[in-house]
Amino acid sequence: MTIKQAVRQDNWGVNVESLPDFWVDPEKLSVIQDLMFSGINVMLTGDPGTGKTELTKRLARAHNLPFHRVNVGAIRTPRDWFGHWEFIGGQTVFIQSEFVAAIQRPGIVALDEFNRVTPDIHNSIYTILDHNREVYIEETKQYIAVHPRCIFIATENRGRSHTGTFMEDTAVEDRFETIELTLPPVEVMADLLEKVYGATPDHALLLARITHKLNSLYHEESLSRPTGFRPAISAAALVKRGQPLNTALKYTFVNRFSPEGGVDSEQTTVLQVIQAYLK
Amino acid sequence: MALPTQAESWKNKSLSDFWLTGRGLDNNKNGNGQPYALFSHKLLASEDTDAQAMALTAILGAVSRVVDIVHGRNKFTVNFSSKETRTDFVAKQIALSAEPLFNPPRGYLMPDIVDVLTGMALHEAAHAQYSSPEYYTEMPGNPFMAVIRNVVEDTYVEHLTTLYYPGYAGYFWKYRRYEFDLDPDKWAHKPRKNLMENELNLRATDFLLVMRSTRDYVSRVARVNHVADMLKKMIYIDNPVRLEKLNTRTVSRRIYDELFGNLVQHDIAYSLPSSLLDYNNRGKHQGEPGSAGANNKTNIPSDLQNLIQNMRQEQLQVANMSELMEAGLDPDYPPPPPPMVVFRRPLTDEGAAERYEQARSVVKPFVIRLRNRLSWANTRQVINRYHLPSGELDEDSLYQARFSNKIFRRTEIIETRTRKLDIGLLVDTSASMVYPAGEGISRVQLARNLAALFVEALEPVDSVQTWVFGFNLKGAVNMYELYSPGLTNKARIGMTGAEGTTPEGTALKYAALRLMSEGRPFVQKVLIVIADGKPNPGPETRMVKEQVRRLKALGCKTINILVGDRPQEYGYEYVIPWTDYYTVTTEFGRLLKKLVEEE
Question: Each residue of A46-56: b (16+ CB within 10 Å) or e?
Answer without folding.
Answer: bbbbbbbbbbb
